[in-house]
Amino acid sequence: MASLADATPPFALGALDGRYRSAVAPLVDHLSEPALNRERVHVEVEWLIHLTSNHVVPGVRALTDDEQKALRKVVDDFGPDQVAEMGDIERVTQHDVKAVEYFLKRRLSEIAPAAEDKGLAELIHFCCTSEDVNNLSYALMVKGAVEQVWLPKAQALVEAVATMASDLRDVPLLAHTHGQPATPTTMGKELAVLAHRLQRQLRRIESAEYLGKLNGATGTYGAHLAAVPEADWPSISQSFVEGLGLTWNPLTTQIESHDWQAELYADVARFNRVLHNLCTDVWTYISMGYFAQVRGQGTVGSSTMPHKVNPIRFENAEANLEVSNALFDVLGSTLVTSRLQRDLTDSSMQRNIGTAFGHSLLALDNVSRGLAGLDAVPAAMAADLDANWEVLGEPVQSAMRALGARGVPGMDEPYERLKELTRGRRITGDDLRAFIAGLGLPDDVAARLSAMTPATYIGAAPELVDYLD
User: Which residues form the Adenylosuccinate lyase PurB C-terminal domain (predicted)?
Assistant: First the structure.
């Protein structure tokens, strides 16, 4: 039997890098192993520039503008060739961050080759533990992935749901509570509820903090003060971390505590769960005939039943949201714990961040494509409304209660009388109007209730859609 494991180029083990690669490829620039190494190079370069520009170490010259540009170009040009070179170095060092240091020392020797500048190389990774570089790199990676890839996709999806809500704000819909016919609403209002919930979660994610630290092996600046005791190392650290666009964490062990990651992943997971609810609701509306899957459907719905167009986009999204949340949940629960001043569980765990975001991004793609292929079917919604006149028992008994409270005679036991009329059986409009006529209601109230239909009993549902942001 041929070995698939030995194929060249290699086959992907996971679905994200195989079947679904095109949908999640933008995350590779942020959350892949090469992206981690690029951010490590970025952090090391900026730390060297920060140290020399601020004359932190006495007697060391500042890098020139051209040298700084050349170093930053190393980051900008970091691609497949550099990934391979760093891999070769790591095979010797058996240490990923040390490989970054040696990689940059090679580049610095080309950028500042003078003999008197050789000492500059000793300021690469100066007074840093690996976690000083890693925590900042991960913060930059996650920030970039969220702000440049995940959020724009999520925002576009929520906007599409809000647009659907607006377009369908006046389309009456028979509600179902506990799976049973209930007070009518509009399709627009129900979609607006989901859009509003998703918008709230996006606001939390948009305001996320991304923390970072640079304070040495146990968070004490021990090596820093031993090397340059006169420097204000906390201030130097703060200005450096904030210069990267991150929030400085002044109190840590060897690791940055990762609480911000747990907070962010909980918010993304909550967004995922609301989106999962949207998927199950829309799937149900499709099964009820309220939406038709007609646009852009060149797919085979069933291998044996030609009439079928299956709601696969929403089903695929459900599965991927569940995988994503399982990963986000374990990331959030694991990353906040570290034994004493350091253990390596976080190092292994953080390598799954890209997979967690990948499954969420794939779900966003599927829901977006699924919604784009739907057409509302108001006639189907109207037919269900017209078949369920018993839902008007609620407004009739509510009107009777209000009249009874005002002392109008004959309004006793309104709930019980409507229960006897409607529970467990279908009634027609004629049945309800005959019932209303026999109640002895004031003429204006009787006329108002008799004119009501299931399709017009929608309260303020259309106007509520306007509360969407």
Answer: 338-458
CB–CB of 328/266 below 8 Å? yes
**Is domain 142-208+256-378 annotated with CATH 1.20.200.10?**
yes
User: Catalytic site residues?
Assistant: 178, 302
| Sequence spans of domains, the chain | 25-126, 142-208+256-378, 389-453
Per-residue pLDDT, 306:
52
Q: Residue 115 has what pLDDT?
A: 86
The three state secondary structure string of 91-135 is HHHCCHHHHHHHHHHHHHHHHCCCHHHHHHHHHCCCCCCHHHHHH
pLDDT of the residue at 399: 92
- Name the nearest CA neighbour of 359 among 122, 100, 150, 147: 150
Look at the domain 389-453 and name its fold.
Ribonucleotide Reductase Protein R1; domain 1 (1.10.40)
Instruction: Burial-class residue 382 by CB neighbours within 10 Å (0-12, 13-18, 19+).
Output: middle
b (16+ CB within 10 A) / e for 69-82: ebbeebbeebeeeb
Which residues partner with 185 through β-bridges?
A: 173
Q: How far is CA 134 from the centre of its chain?
A: 23
For residue 33, the one-letter residue type is E
Can you tell me the distance from the alpha carbon of 149 to that of 365, in angstroms, rounded to the nearest whole number?
A: 12
Joined together, the tokens standing for residue 72 give 């930053």
Burial group, residue 427, by CB count within 10 angstroms (0-12, 13-18, 19+): middle
CATH 1.10.275.10 fits domain 25-126: yes
Question: How far apart (Å, rounded) are the C-alpha atoms in residues 202 and 270?
Answer: 10
- Measure the CA–CA gap between 183 and 176, rounded to whole angstroms: 8
Beta-bridge mates of residue 305: none
Cα–Cα distance, 242 to 240 (Å, whole number): 6
Q: What is the end-to-end Cα distance of the chain in Å, rounded? A: 59
Instruction: Identify the pLDDT of residue 422.
Output: 78
Beta bridge partners of 374: 293
For the chain (469 residues), the mean pLDDT of every run of 10, in chain order, is 86 91 96 97 98 96 96 97 95 94 96 90 96 98 98 98 98 96 97 98 98 97 97 98 98 97 98 98 97 69 60 96 98 95 92 97 97 96 96 92 91 84 85 89 94 97 94
